[in-house]
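quick one before i forget lol
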Amino acid sequence: MNAILNNCASLEELSVKRLRGITDGAAAEPIGPGLAASSLKTICLKELYNGQCFGPLIIGSKNLRTLKLFRCSGDWDKVLRVIPDRVSGLVEIHLERLQVSDAGLTALSTCLSLEILHLVKTPECTNFGLTLVAEQCKLLRKLHIDGWKANHIGDDGLIAVAKHCPNLQELVLIGVNPTKISLETLASNCQNLERLALCGSDTVGDAEISCIAAKCMALKKLCIKSCLVSDEGMKALATGCPNLVKVKVKKCRGVTCDGAEWLRASRGSLAVNLDSGEVELQDANASDGGGGGVQDNGVEFAPQAGLNQMPPVAPSIAGGSRSTARSTSFKARLGLLNGRGIVACTLRRWSSGNGGSQS
């Protein structure tokens, strides 16, 4: 790795996954920064036991714009604390299944150019850390949170986002329980909000959907999954959100085919996709992992520019075989082909449809 970094002076993007040759523990040799540090714009680290060996490279890449860290062991707060003093132009940060807390978010809150933030299954991150980010990173336009049903991020953090991030265009909440209070504040203050996904929430029902319908004037894409929504919520969408072009509803048992058909008939130009999820009961019971969060909600994150949805966690980092990892990846692709990855498909289309705004 150091040979590459020392000799590839024009390297702009580095992605490293499951690198096995790094010495474990304190004896690990630091990686970077090298000559490539001056040109690197994107660093992506996935499933590394000793990913923090790349700390010198991350900190030394002064022109870094995108940092993506997925399922890398160790305490990442230490690395994140140093980043703002060395890297001033970070625009996009993805943190998934990391040991990172509000201390790390406090450091990232000083990245004033931040526009895209993903917090996926980082249960030590709370409303406090999100509030600090929102108060300082006023350019934020895309926010994805998978709260993993921990209830550490909720109304307080979302209200802070609503008050301080008026440029927000895309909001994805998975395993988070917003109420009408925060959703109304978001709808009123974030008047550029065009894409909204609410998945696996115990608090989103017809009243919350009615609030969105009445307040979100700019909304174009809405995805609702595993929420307490019924046909009454669909009726509210019939007369609200004047710019709405697509609605996807999955595993919301209160929404019937009649309700979806009625919404289609009421707004002829609106694309309505309904999947009750009944045929997936067997698949859910037999699914691999059972780790909760995104996978339990049927949301599969596949690597895409901007939204960076990852596939289900490969078990190799926990000692699984390569064949198991390939099997898991195959199942993920097969699930998408069968229409089971509704949120992944939805967000992928959003990403491709808005690729110009990310570049």
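fyi The longest helix spans residues 322-337.
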